[in-house]
Design brief:
With 866 residues, the chain is α+β, with helices and mostly antiparallel strands. 26% of the residues lie in helices and 27% in strands. The protein is built from 18 helices and 47 strands. The strands form 14 sheets. Strands 39, 40, 42, 45 and 46 form a five-stranded mixed beta sheet that branches. A four-stranded mixed beta sheet has the order 14-9-8-17. A four-stranded antiparallel beta sheet has the order 10-11-13-12, covered by helices on one side. Helix 7 runs antiparallel to helix 16 (449-464). The radius of gyration is 41 Å and the shape is elongated. It starts with 20 loop residues before the first helix and ends in a 36-residue tail after the last strand.
């Protein structure tokens, strides 16, 4: 056997450690995952920054001279601390700059709303903002570490005295871990921190720089599992033009337009043209083809495009070198506690410095005023000098807060003769008095640290809170049924005999039925008594001998089916009236009782549960006395789809003919108005408007002083900021209004009925003069108001008035009667106890009250009163 050349044939007594390749991979992966989580993707809880962001700010602080620096230079400075490339640093810096909080920017920094990129780093400039300098830096309380190459020192974390991570928001994807924290409002964060310091609970909600609307009902504090629904504002400019005035967070105008074009190409919506007019403010113009409803299109835009997006927050931060999942309120609590601790550290350092200054000032004063410096003139050694000074200070040592050291005495020997000769005892006493006051103030702040922290946050709000109001509207969204708003983009054909249905049938293969959406469901009834609900397809076989096909709407209780069938077992004929509100798709059901050989004799469908009368003809050879008789379906109750039905006759039926169709047996359609989302509904949400049928209308009174009549389509949208009142229209109903005439600068009361019948057109019933405003509108039979009239100077008289007695009913164009000749302020509607015989006549929920104390508290009433 050949010898091992390594040990020259000698046995090796050293142990050999063998690591499997799988073990290497496991360790390498864990190291890599830890690095990505801790050093790249997830911010640190202490200062809310990722490492690259912290290094950028540290580099800017080192370069800070008050002037702007080329971003390219800042990138180069940052690369001394950051081990990654310049592109990553540049992108991170642009992201910080677009938040407009920590750094000031100059040049083209891109636009987060449109997705436009920033100019090259050599063309744009930056510097630390005053806010960044104020809250993020204090080298005396900063913990330092060596940079990646050991040449420089960098902060482990910045002493951030502000909940930065909640203000800016953050996203990061690590290995097996991600974080997504929403941005919150600057002012609300500071006020919430103050509430925490006062021992109160907080409930933070996001605020996005892109504005828009937000439904945070399932936000769950920003932790995993929560959801946010965010929408852009869409306005109706006219019947053929929509304007998107803000975009949802996480989208851009470019991506939003792309999603609109994509939805149009797929037939989900119908538009003519979309144009991006965004400049200082976001504006995307959408032109609609003729005949397309703007309200339905708005719903479709929310349903099928990025005009509405769903965001899943996931608040994850690094705490003690470990990723933790928290709510935003927990993050704010930890951040506030850290800010208070940082303020404590700053106070302690400042207090120690002040004490040292006071001590040396005292030593200097004693040293000069007692001419101790003369005693050292005859000393021949350094030790003798120190000893002489120490001996001269001996009587005064008890007044100092610590022992006098050799270093203190050495500092005294370094005082120049010029300073000694010009020493001013009065100025020295003033300086020491000021130092003493500063010491006492710092001691007071330390003893009352929470109050000091509250003052700090209040100072932040005063210095930097201007023009940082909330941009995102907090509201509740209605759930849009996509089938209701999808454009009918397909032509549906049916082959009744062969049993095929779909939008892919050729004209010679089937009969055109109607237009439908490719999101719709179809319900198909066959002559054998079977029926099925299936998705609209290109071409589908649903069974031969089709009797009825239509689009099926889940939960529609008003569509009723009438059926008569024969049971071959009992030889009886059954009649039934039923609705199909819920069903399992692609499963066959029976109209009959399921007996083998049962067959439908008569079948009709009615959209609004109309009743009908049929004439039944029996066979001539049957034993029945009346071989022809009528039956009214209104005598039957509407039952479930699985009911057997009632016995119509036990005799054989020759044929059945429809005699007449009557009115709906379920009455009018009950409609409610949900004031939280500005939508009509049939689900019982909000204010009950009444039962609608036929030509009934909805009346809307707008804040601009106009009324409008609309049909009762559930797709109507009402802008809550522009709507005063929504009710069922009654031609005899009296509207009571108080309005301000901008020309005469007087308040008027008018009572009128709506005399117009034109729908979808607003009619202005107040003055057209500038600054004219609608103050109050109600459809209650008795409206009482309270107002104050100026008598002399500042003296005012309180007046209560029953408007139904103040003025009679006039035409809708009339100006009305002047409310008061005197100067009027603080108009509001009040409730007055009615006599017993009149109680119950008021229509609750119909009144609109403008301002509890002062009209100008509402945006629609600004500048009405002095």
């Amino acid at each position: 056997m050949a010898e091992n050349p390594i040990n020259n044939g000698q046995e090796s007594h050293e142990e050999t450690h063998v690591t499997a390749v799988s073990g290497l991979y496991e360790n390498y992966f864990l190291d890599y995952a830890s690095y990505v989580i801790l050093e790249r993707a997830v911010p640190l809880l202490d200062d809310g920054l990722k490492p690259v962001q912290r290094r950028i700010l540290h580099a800017l602080k080192e370069m800070d001279d008050g002037r702007f620096h080329k971003v390219a230079n800042v990138i180069g400075q940052t690369m001394q601390f950051h081990p990654h490339g310049d592109a990553a640093i540049g992108d991170a810096m642009v992201n910080i700059g677009q938040k407009e909080l920590l750094i000031d920017t100059q040049g083209n920094w891109g636009d987060s709303r449109t997705g436009d990129r920033a100019a090259a780093s050599r063309y744009i400039e930056t510097r630390l903002s005053k806010f960044g300098l104020h809250v993020a830096f204090n080298p005396k309380i900063t913990e330092w570490q060596l940079s990646y190459d050991g040449r420089k020192k960098e902060p482990v974390s910045l002493p951030m005295k502000f909940p930065l991570v909640l203000a800016q928001g953050v996203e990061g994807i690590a290995v097996g871990l991600s974080t997504k924290i929403m941005p919150h409002n600057f002012v609300e964060l500071i006020k919430a921190s103050i509430q925490i310091l006062k021992g109160r609970k907080t409930k933070l909600l996001p605020d996005f720089p892109t504005g828009g609307m937000m439904d945070a009902s399932n936000y769950q504090g920003g932790k995993r599992g929560g959801k946010l629904r965010v929408r852009g504002h869409i306005e109706v400019q006219d019947k053929s033009t929509l304007l998107v005035k803000s975009i949802p967070y996480s989208t851009t105008t470019t991506s939003l337009i792309d999603s609109i074009i994509k939805a149009n190409d797929k037939g989900k919506i119908k538009i003519k043209k979309v144009v991006d007019n965004t400049a200082q403010d976001v504006e995307i113009q959408i032109d609609l083809p003729s005949g397309i409803s703007p309200d339905v299109t708005i719903d479709a835009l929310y349903a099928f495009t990025d005009c509405e997006v769903s965001i899943s927050p996931n608040a994850c931060l690094i705490l003690d070198d470990t990723p933790v999942f928290l709510t935003v309120d927990e993050i704010l609590k930890l951040s506030t506690d850290r800010t208070r601790d940082l303020l404590r550290q700053e106070l302690e350092i400042t207090l120690a410095e002040l004490r040292e200054k006071y001590l040396f000032s005292s030593l200097e004063k004693i040293f000069i005023e007692n001419r101790i410096y003369r005693d050292i003139e005859e000393c021949e050694t350094w030790e003798a000098v120190l000893e002489t000074i120490d001996k001269g200070l001996e009587p005064y040592k008890p007044q100092f807060y610590r022992e006098i050291t050799e270093d203190d005495i050495t500092r005294l020997t370094e005082i120049r003769i010029k300073r000694i000769s010009k020493f001013n005892s009065f100025k020295a006493d003033e300086l020491m008095r000021q130092l003493q006051e500063d010491i006492e103030q710092n001691e007071h702040h330390l003893a009352n640290l929470t109050d000091y922290a509250i003052e700090y946050f209040e100072d932040l709000l005063k210095k930097f809170g201007k023009d940082r109001g909330r941009k995102t509207e907090i509201t509740t969204f209605d759930n849009i049924q996509v089938q209701q708003v999808a454009v009918a983009n397909q032509k549906l054909y049916v082959n009744y005999k062969e049993g095929f249905v779909g939008y892919g049938l050729k004209k010679d293969e089937g009969e055109y039925l109607k237009d439908c959406s490719d999101l719709d469901d179809l319900i198909v009834f066959r002559s054998d008594g079977k029926y099925i609900v299936t998705k609209v397809q290109d071409k589908a076989f649903v069974g031969k001998n089709i009797l009825h096909v239509d689009v099926w709407k889940k939960g529609n209780e008003r569509k009723v089916y009438h059926a008569i069938y024969r049971d071959p077992v009992s030889s009886k004929n059954y009649i039934k009236r039923f609705a199909v509100t819920a069903i399992t798709r692609d499963r066959e059901y029976d109209v009959t009782n399921g007996a083998k050989g049962a067959k439908l004799i008569y079948f009709t469908a009615h959209e609004n549960s109309e009743a009908e009368v049929v004439t039944v003809y029996l066979t001539q050879n049957c034993r029945a006395k009346n071989k022809v008789f009528d039956f009214d379906f209104s005598e039957l109750a509407i039952k479930g789809r699985s009911s057997q039905g009632n016995v119509l006759t036990k005799y054989p039926i020759r044929r059945i003919a429809q005699k007449s169709v009557g009115a709906s047996t379920q009455g009018g359609l009950k409609i409610w108005y949900d004031e939280t989302v500005g939508r009509l509904n049939v689900d019982g949400r909000g204010q009950f408007l009444g039962e609608f049928e036929g030509e009934d209308s909805v009346m809307v009174i707008h804040k601009d002083g106009s009324y409008e009549l609309l049909d009762y389509e559930l797709t109507h949208r009402f802008d809550l900021n522009k709507t005063v009142l929504v009710s069922k229209f009654n031609p005899e109903q009296v509207i009571t209004a108080v309005h301000y005439d901008g020309e005469s600068k007087q308040y008027y009361v008018k009572r009128f009925t709506v005399e117009t019948t034109t729908r979808n057109k607003p009619f202005l019933f107040i003055s057209e003069a500038d600054n004219s405003k609608l103050v109050l509108a109600s459809v209650e039979p008795n409206v009482h108001i309270q107002y104050f009239a100026t008598i002399k100077g500042t003296q005012k008289e309180e007046v209560q008035l029953n408007l139904s007695e103040f003025i009679g009913v006039k035409g809708w164009r009339a100006t009305g009667n002047k409310l008061d000749k005197r100067k009027v302020t603080r108009i509001k509607q009040i409730e007055v106890e009615m006599p017993a015989e009149n109680q119950g006549s008021l229509q609750t929920g119909d009144s609109v009250e403008w301002s509890g104390d002062d009209v100008n508290t509402d945006s629609a009433q600004t500048d009405l009163f002095e």
